[in-house]
Write a structure and sequence with these properties.
The chain contains four helices and twelve strands; from the N terminus they run ββααβββαββββαβββ. By secondary structure, it is an alpha+beta fold. The chain has a five-stranded mixed beta sheet with strand order 10-9-8-11-12. A hairpin with a 4-residue loop joins strand 3 and strand 4.
Length: about 210
């Protein structure tokens, strides 16, 4: 049976973006025709976690409501370089525990992290949504693979806009950043667009 995953930010015993995580879990059960769901707040409460600092609460579950939990200390990774990787058939509409295809793409890459290009459109990295800066504004690709909880939160609070970001217009943006449940929007933690080692227009584009 398919297994799904939620990675939830816990900092100083506070749980973040719970409403968005719960909504995604509920949608997963409903999409596959299953009644009911699992209660993330109740699961966290039963863990009786009392540690200070930043943690990732990893909840793996299936549609029979069997769950596994892990509480993992978390540090935000800093990456040196990124590579555009084309995959027009990849689908990650649901947050599945099965990441084999993502890992396969990463293994073939010559950079620390990949940015997946689907049908000419910029989508996500292997573990996060993306934001791109143009002038003073931040945009997130409309062609995402997974509509992440932080992405939804930032759009709801109008901190970012959605836009079509393609291989053709990628160089119009100056910087980018990675966001997910554990990586917040942070103007001080951004990468120049040149960290993408095979930008379109460069001689080695997609030849790496």
């Amino acid at each position: 049976m398919s297994q799904f995953i939620e990675s939830i930010k816990i900092e100083n015993r506070k749980i973040f973006l719970l409403e968005f995580h719960q909504k995604r879990v509920d949608h997963t059960f409903a999409h596959f025709g299953k009644e009911g769901s699992i209660d993330l707040a109740k699961i966290y409460k039963h863990l009786e976690h009392d540690g200070d600092g930043l943690f990732k609460l990893r909840i793996v579950y299936d549609l029979d409501k069997k769950i596994r939990t892990q509480m993992i200390p978390y540090a935000i990774p800093e990456l040196n370089d990124f590579q555009l990787v084309e995959n027009n058939s990849f689908d990650y509409s649901f947050k599945s525990e099965d990441r084999k295809e993502l890992e396969k793409m990463k293994m073939k890459a010559k950079a620390e992290e990949i940015i997946i290009v689907k049908n000419n459109h910029i989508t996500d990295t292997s573990y996060s949504n993306l934001l791109f800066k143009k002038g003073k504004e931040w945009f997130t690709p409309s062609a995402y693979l997974l509509n992440g909880v932080q992405r939804q939160n930032l759009l709801k609070h109008k901190k970012i806009k959605e836009g079509e970001i393609t291989l053709q217009n990628l160089k119009e943006f100056s910087h980018f950043q990675l966001v997910n449940a554990l990586n917040d929007f942070d103007e001080n933690f951004i990468y120049p667009i040149g960290r993408i080692i095979n930008l379109p227009g460069n001689e080695d584009y997609l030849d790496l």
